[in-house]
Amino acid sequence: MDAGSGSERTEHRARVTWEGTKEDLRAHRVELAGEVVRGSTMPENGGDPDRADPEQLFVGALSACHMLWFIALARGRRLRVTAYADEAVGTLENGRISRVVLNPEVAFADGPGSGVLAELHHEAHERCYLAASVSFPVEVAA
């Protein structure tokens, strides 16, 4: 990722096509950069649990944004990330996402220490365009 100011204007596209059937009236597909994600509504609303729901995609997007900034910032410090995984959790209450907690686990070729790790997560959070665009807390539990 470019560590620039983010002041330039860009557009980001997704194609969503309804594929509703008798079994799942909410079935759809989301096409992003040549990839297809099969979607439905959340199972709690009668959706297919084998398909992604918009809330999961939203939480995943926040997690991916943080991860990409984290890796870019680590690279800028000449730290080699060897593994990164996150079990992000979003809370939906009263019809709104009220909180997202990121739980990243990161491995490095040479451990930078907890202070540098905390700095990287803080700066990644500050730079993530998506976290800056929401009105609820996005917490990093690392």
Describe the structure.
Helices cover 30% and strands 28% of the residues. With 142 residues, it is of the alpha+beta class. The chain has two domains: 10-52, no CATH class; 53-142, GMP Synthetase, Chain A, domain 3. The strands form three sheets. Strands 1-2-3 form a three-stranded antiparallel beta sheet, with no helix packed on it. Strands 5-6-8 form a three-stranded mixed beta sheet. Strand 5 and strand 6 (96-102) form a beta hairpin. Helix 1 packs across helix 2 (114-127). The longest helix has 23 residues, at 54-76. The protein is elongated, with a radius of gyration of 17 Å. The model has no long low-confidence stretch (mean pLDDT 93).
Provide a brief overview of the structure.
With 142 residues, the protein is an alpha+beta fold.
Strand-and-helix sequence, N→C? EEEHEEEEHHE
Number of domains: 2
- Spans with pLDDT under 50 lasting ≥5 residues? none
For the record, the CATH class of the largest domain is: Alpha Beta
How many H/I helices? 3
Q: How would you state the average pLDDT, rounded? A: 93
- Indicate the structural class: alpha+beta
Give the CATH architecture of the largest domain.
2-Layer Sandwich
